[in-house]
Design goal:
globular, disordered C terminus, alpha/beta, Rossmann fold, six-stranded mixed beta sheet
Length: 258
């Protein structure tokens, strides 16, 4: 069964409809990326998945007992607060040191246990947040703009680590990001959101879709090839197109190379 699924979800704030009839499902072990312009409903969708918001219509179902890990956009810690990485990971208490060490290893920063949180670089801080999300061995890992503020090489390295996490743990991963060329290349499946699901499928299919091109142009094709890793293309999906007129035709020469 799907780990979590949305059926015909709609959400509005006042007269403004943020999501309209959105349906999606996350399957065990897959990496899915949600992309979309500002105001497309990405953050609202994530809030629905973690239970921080409720839909006006439609329903959300999940596997009984589903364990979810969450990596936020950012987390502010007072720089004057003397707290080590290990102590941060053990909050609010009771987490074994061995579990912290395993989580840091999986996040790619095994040597940070005794460092002060205030002394971490931006990339290290995000890896520690990733480690915290992994401590309870989630079946589904949610990342909300988890590399915001990192440079492009740092973002690429972070998402390569996400692939390793999937290989080591078998967890499914849902990511939300603006970094199209990096995040899409790290994904098995991409969902393009703009208040509704515009199109979805493999990164190659979505990057060539007219709906995606209308929102983002064609400039990510070459960069996508730089970070693309191999996937089993037997799971390629046909893009589900919207019905809006006036979309430019897809240019096959800008599709990502494999």
């Amino acid at each position: 069964m799907s780990l979590i699924a949305m059926q015909n979800i709609s959400v509005g704030y006042g007269a403004n409809m943020v999501l309209r009839n959105v349906s999606l499902a996350i399957e065990p072990g897959e990496i899915v990326t949600i992309v979309g312009p500002n105001g497309s409903g990405k953050t609202t969708l994530l809030r629905l998945l973690i239970g921080a918001a409720a839909p006006e219509s439609g329903r959300i179902t999940q596997k009984p007992g589903l364990r979810i890990g969450y990596v936020p956009q950012k987390l502010h810690i007072d720089p004057t607060l003397p707290i080590t990485v290990e102590r941060f990971l053990r909050l609010p208490g009771g987490t074994p040191r061995s579990a912290c060490a395993t989580a840091l290893e999986r996040a790619g920063v095994p040597d940070l246990s005794h460092r002060q949180m205030s002394a971490l670089s931006g990339g290290q801080f995000q890896r520690v947040l990733l480690a915290r999300a992994l401590i309870d061995e989630p079946e589904l890992l949610l990342l909300d703009e988890a590399t915001q503020g990192l440079d492009q090489p740092g973002s690429a390295a972070f998402y390569l680590q996400i692939e390793e996490v999937r290989q080591q743990t078998g967890c499914a991963i849902l990511m939300i990001s603006h970094e199209l060329h990096v995040v899409m290349a790290a994904s098995d499946r991409v969902i393009c959101l703009n208040g509704h699901v515009c199109c979805e499928g493999t990164p190659e299919i979505v990057s060539a879709a007219p709906e995606y091109r209308a929102l983002f142009g064609t400039g990510t094709g070459g960069a996508l090839a730089l970070y693309r890793h191999e996937h089993d293309h037997s799971h390629d999906e046909t893009c589900t197109h919207g019905d809006g007129p006036g979309h430019p035709p897809a240019d096959p020469h800008t599709r990502a190379a494999e």
